[in-house]
Amino acid sequence: MTDELKPLLPCPCCNGTPSLMYGPGGDIWVKCPVCGLQTEMHPNNAAITAWNRRAEPDGLPEWLREKIQGSIHNAYECLDRSAPLNNKRSNRNWSVLIDALEWVLSLRREDAE
Questions:
Q1: Model confidence pTM above 0.85
Q2: How many CB atoms lie within 10 A of CB 94?
Q3: Which of 68, 74, 71 is nearest to 104 (CA)?
Q4: N or C: which end of the chain has fewer CB within 10 A?
Q5: Alpha carbon of residue 54 to chain centroid
Q6: What is the DSSP letter of 40?
Q7: What is the distance between the terminal CA atoms of the chain, rounded to a whole angstrom?
Q8: Domain spans in the chain, listed from the N-terminal domain onward
Q9: What are the backbone dihedrals phi and psi of residue 110, each rounded to the nearest 5 degrees, phi first?
């Protein structure tokens, strides 16, 4: 990692201009003077990297989408196995879980306009 400091993105909560804070032993952290949001103390540029990290632009990260899709697949298999037993409560529970997971996959971040 280079010693050159990266520019700080505006605060993700209030769009304020963050400040770089210096602690003992050369550790640094980033703090928003407007709303008080801050990172933990980190050595070198790690605090800047942590501050500048933002959520995936199109909703969920790909690794999480894959996990949820796998869980939906498993829930459908469990639903298929429990259907012949005619256990209405179990069938309903699996259906509710599937609906909830599919809803999570449908989420998208709306434009800030």
A1: no
A2: 21
A3: 68
A4: C
A5: 8
A6: -
A7: 36
A8: 1-54, 62-106
A9: -80, 150
